[in-house]
Amino acid sequence: MPKVLDIIPGTAVDGPGLRTSIYFSGCTHHCDGCHNPQSWDFEAGTLMTTEQIMEFVEENGFNVTFTGGDPMAHAIDLLPLAKELKARGYNIWCYTGYTFEQLIKMPGCRGLLDFIDVIVDGPFIKSQRDINLRFRGSSNQRLINVPESLKGEIVWWNDGIA
Ligand code: SF4
Fold first, then answer.
1. Is 97 close to ligand 1, i.e. is its CB under 6 Å away?
2. Is the confidence at residue 161, as pLDDT, over 90?
3. 143-156 pLDDT, tens digit each
4. Do 92 and 85 meet the contact criterion of CB atoms below 8 Å apart?
5. What's the gap in Å between 156 CA and the centre of ligand 1?
6. Surface-to-core class of residue 134, CB atoms within 10 Å of its CB (0-12 exposed, 13-18 middle, 19+ buried)
7. Sequence spans of domains, the chain
8. End-to-end CA distance of the chain
9. Quick check: CB of 125 below 6 Å from ligand 1?
10. Residue 157 CB neighbours (<10 A)
11. 36 CA distance to ligand 1 centroid (A)?
12. CATH topology of domain 3-149
């Protein structure tokens, strides 16, 4: 399991509804203007087991967002947690600096995608920053409906509001 920098229950900015955001440490993308550069260090944070994280999530019952850092840097390690969350009916969003096209070619990441509902993909690009965008920082990033997109063409997540 990767180290956890923070777990924030009840956030409204990392996907629809109130969610529990889990911040995993470690990111190799090093985007200029990153909102959370302290998360780049793979050694930062605290080791937590799947059971410990599940206990935290179940306390509030909110759906879950994986963020960081780049959770996809730990795709294989996150598989047991993602499986457990899905088995208990949670919806999972995941922020990543990789694009969907890159992820489906990376075996560990491709495996994790089977348990993710939506990814917000791609690096943060400062020149494309737009504060009006919903759930993302720059306009190159996409809100991708993963189960639908794994069938072939990329399908954007859409709840009819944006
Ligand atoms: S992918 Fe995310 S966490 Fe990593 S450097 Fe870019 S904005 Fe920061």
1. yes
2. no
3. 999 999 999 999 99
4. yes
5. 21
6. exposed
7. 3-149
8. 34
9. no
10. 20
11. 7
12. TIM Barrel (3.20.20)
